[in-house]
Design a protein that fits this description.
415 residues, alpha+beta, Rossmann fold, Elongation Factor Tu (Ef-tu), domain 3, 8-stranded antiparallel beta sheet, 6-stranded mixed beta sheet, 18% helix, globular
């Protein structure tokens, strides 16, 4: 019996072995072709390495291979008889934290890598904090390079105790600890006899069995309109369809929906997909919705159930992960992207910044710089229709964009 798709991402400090772990998963589950293996084997020999460098399966950029680090997010797909997996290899270098935020945004589960020699680092804390803020409830802490510390249990237990103490204040439902050696494959896919004191599952066994679906919101129907389809042809003269991705909830033909911001309601006449009409939809589906009445609806508007509306507000509090070298500036104006809606807003206040080492709120430091996390207040130029991030990850998130450079400077989770 299949358990569906699991979206996973890896995080951790530089050289903790994230890419090697993914390469080991792919290799030991026989999820790579022979010519792929021969290619990375030849590359490893040219680099003068003793063993086949499985990290090359995900580190595809020339700069990544030259420096031995991950820069961009690399996605890999593999499956077992129990489950299908999409796994994202995200960068560990502090310079590329924005890429880590991107790779984790749609994940169900996080693998936090910790080098057994170095223990918990600042990047471990930062990535764990961001993982918690993004709303991922399941974390696997892989204590890697156990072979270098002679598979000592006390090293593993010390890291586990420190991580548990650090993460106890975060909103994470489930944390699992597994001692591994990604290089030699211990406890990745196959059980290691060298770590006999560990009685738990291997990493793959845990990933196959964990109940870590994305906790999709099936209660609150939200359909941000991405595109209005008007063919303007004789055959489809009166056709008016609203295309987009269902952000959350379920809906079916004949149900009554309300369009925001207009507030007008109508019944769903039909629901169309690339493969033809269907009777109902659930979150994540790309569809075109046709209504019985002609209502003025455009891109950025949202369809909801008549008696289940999102919050409508211009003054918004959010947790922000700052992704730019130019610091956040109070009273500055930024472009805002929320679902399919584009608008502008100003930063009214910085309420506090989070100390990455202690996770405490620092209220006397209002300076939000690159890779900082804090809580801010903004005011938008027009009302925003949203839910809290904990309730709905799709309608509860937004990004801030620098209007002069068009760079994404902040990733926000609405509180």
């Amino acid at each position: 019996m299949t358990k569906g798709l699991l979206r996973v991402f890896t995080a951790g400090s530089v050289d903790d072995g994230k890419s090697t772990l993914i390469g080991r998963l792919l290799y030991d589950t026989k999820s790579i072709y022979e010519d792929q293996y021969e290619s990375i084997k030849a590359s490893s020999e040219l680099r003068g390495e003793e063993n086949v460098n499985l990290a090359l399966l995900t580190d595809g950029l020339r700069a990544e291979r030259e420096q031995g680090i991950t820069i961009d997010v690399a996605y890999r797909y593999f499956s077992t008889p129990q489950r299908k997996f999409i796994i994202a290899d995200t960068p560990g270098h502090i310079q590329y934290t924005r890429n880590m935020v991107t790779g984790s945004s749609n994940a169900d589960l996080a693998i936090i890598m910790v080098d057994a020699r170095n223990g918990i680092t600042e990047q471990t804390r930062r990535h764990t904090l961001i993982t918690s803020l993004i709303g991922i409830k399941h974390i696997v802490v892989c204590v890697n390079k156990m072979d270098i510390v002679d598979f000592k249990r006390e090293v593993f237990e010390k890291i586990r105790h420190e991580f548990q103490s650090f993460s106890s204040t975060l909103e994470v439902a489930n944390v699992q600890f597994i001692p591994v050696s990604a290089l030699s494959g211990d406890n990745v896919v196959h059980k290691s006899e060298k770590i006999a004191w560990y009685k738990g599952e291997t990493l793959l066994e845990y990933l196959e069995n964990v109940n870590a679906t994305n906790d999709e919101n099936r209660l609150d129907f939200r359909f941000p309109v991405q595109y209005v389809i008007r063919p303007q042809s004789k055959e489809y003269h009166d056709y008016r369809g609203y295309a987009g991705i269902v952000a959350s909830g379920v809906i079916k033909k004949g149900d009554t929906v309300t369009a925001l911001p207009s507030g007008f309601s109508s019944k769903i006449k039909s629901i169309e997909t690339y493969d033809g009409p269907i009777e109902g939809v659930v979150s994540g589906m790309s569809v075109t919705i046709l209504l019985e009445d002609d209502i003025d609806i455009s891109r950025g508007d949202i369809l909801v159930r008549e008696n289940n509306r999102p919050i409508t507000e211009q003054n918004i509090d959010l947790m922000i992960c700052w992704l730019n070298e130019r610091k956040l500036a109070i009273s500055s104006r930024y472009a805002i992207k929320h679902t399919t809606k584009d608008l502008k807003g100003i930063v009214k206040d910085v309420q506090y910044k989070i100390n990455i080492d202690t996770l405490q709120q620092v209220e006397d430091d209002k300076e939000i710089g690159l890779n900082d996390v804090g809580r801010i207040s903004i005011r938008t130029t027009s009302p925003l229709f949203f839910d809290s991030y904990l309730k709905n990850r799709n309608t509860g998130s937004l990004i801030l964009i620098d209007e002069t450079t068009n760079e994404t400077v902040g990733a926000g989770m609405i509180v």
